[in-house]
Amino acid sequence: MAGRSVDEGAAVNRIPKVAVGLPVYNGENYLAETLDLLLGQTFEDFELIISDNCSSDRTAEICRDYAAGDRRILYTRNDSNIGSAPNSNRVFSLARSPYFTWKAHDDRSDPRFLEKCVAVLDAEPDVVLAHTASLTIDDRGDPLPFDAGRGCYIYNPGGYEVPPDTTHIAEGRDPVARFVELLDEHYFGMHMYGVVRREALAATALFRSYMPCERAMLSELALIGRFVTLEDQLYARRVHARSACFMSLPQRWEYEQTADNPDRHLFPRLRAFLSAPLRSRAIDHRQRLACIGHVLAAAGRSKLARLARRLPLPGAGREPERKTVYQ
Description:
The protein folds into two domains: 1-106, Spore Coat Polysaccharide Biosynthesis Protein SpsA, Chain A; 107-327, no CATH class. The termini are far apart. Helix 6 (175-181) packs antiparallel against helix 8 (213-222) and helix 10 runs antiparallel to helix 11. Helices cover 35% and strands 19% of the residues. The longest helix is centred in the C-terminal third of the chain and has 26 residues, at 285-310. The mean pLDDT is 85. A hairpin with a 4-residue loop joins strand 8 and strand 9 (160-162). It is built from eleven helices and eleven strands. The chain is globular. By secondary structure, the chain is of the alpha/beta class.
């Protein structure tokens, strides 16, 4: 079975239950492995939408080879690099299925991932996002060692600290409490790779071109409904030498932000989280004010914590620099 073009995809009458969106840029290193795992899912009623962000490596060749052999693949390539967030939003804009999930080109999905997550959404109407527990792996796919004393995984070479992600988050009935959990700076948004109800996701601002767009989108989604995280470890996030997490802060900003974004220098982190309750139609006025108060309080705590790290107490030596990713 051959893959489809964008025009052909829109003309297909039957809509699959799940759309898998895979935005990619220069992903030749792990793309084939990821495609094999996605196409080998035990739940087969899905389409795979790939948006190639004008890659300069073998990404296009790999995608076309796979699309030629599987009708479930819809492959499209941008004429220029439109930025990370817009490319992620593009795959969602092409999806028609009631359930949607983003996937990274360098992560791994167990063959049962879609099956397990879809079962949760089918059984629990108030759940908007279903995910599974995840592993953290290295370049070769081996689990990273965990240092209990430091409370993090260690990536070598370099001895970088990789903070563990929160497994269970935004699972309660109170939308304000769910929103507050997403404000935690130590959570970096792995639930963006869960399976989501398309209708709920369409009610958010999706990804915006500033940091931390993942948590900002998830915080808005959490105001709409609950998340569920299964105990099964069916997803693996990969940390490798070319990961975006190893970019310097200026590089990261440039990676996330596009030149035509008018908000790129106007307190994007604060604006991102304030916009979620302001936009949401799922909460009342009292809940909206409560969320705004929590955002402002969290912003103040974050600022104080940064100052404390930079200004040690008199007589105290400066702590040795810790090389940490996802910060």
